């Protein structure tokens, strides 16, 4: 078992250069870039490169719909037929921006949290963007330290700023090993909020 296999969450940067392997065991490409569907808070797909040190970008891409599973050591696909024209994924880059590297993070109460270093995604079959890695600001009490902040289902970007609820600060952790539990707590809170909203006004 690889050291990070037990953690279902990974920074997107770690997925680059991961091999793309068919269920038949054939390595057909490697991940070049992770492309996000920001509006829905999940991976849209991957741009690809050939295998080997001298291999360059491929004209093919891998939409998330073609992924069997995102594993700790490989991106698994049913067969090479899952690969599509590069434009199938590259077009997402032109859509509404999501939590991207270098974006500022600001709470809805005007507190500057820091700067996005990376987006953390969920491995397996969901491919959700569940958190961000942040170079924290002084106001967070962890000045210039890398921390992880769980995200809501639909992150809100305004220009080059990611807006988050002020209450999300309580879920910040410094170790990615603690992040799954923090994400779980935030989801429970959000579910409770939805339940409350759904029952509001009922007898």
TrEMBL record:
Record-annotated PRC-barrel domain positions: 13-79, 98-165
Xref: Pfam families: PRC (PF05239)
Coiled-coil intervals, chain numbering: none
InterPro entries: PRC-brl_dom, PRC_barrel-like_sf
Transmembrane segments: none
Protein name, as recorded: PRC-barrel domain-containing protein
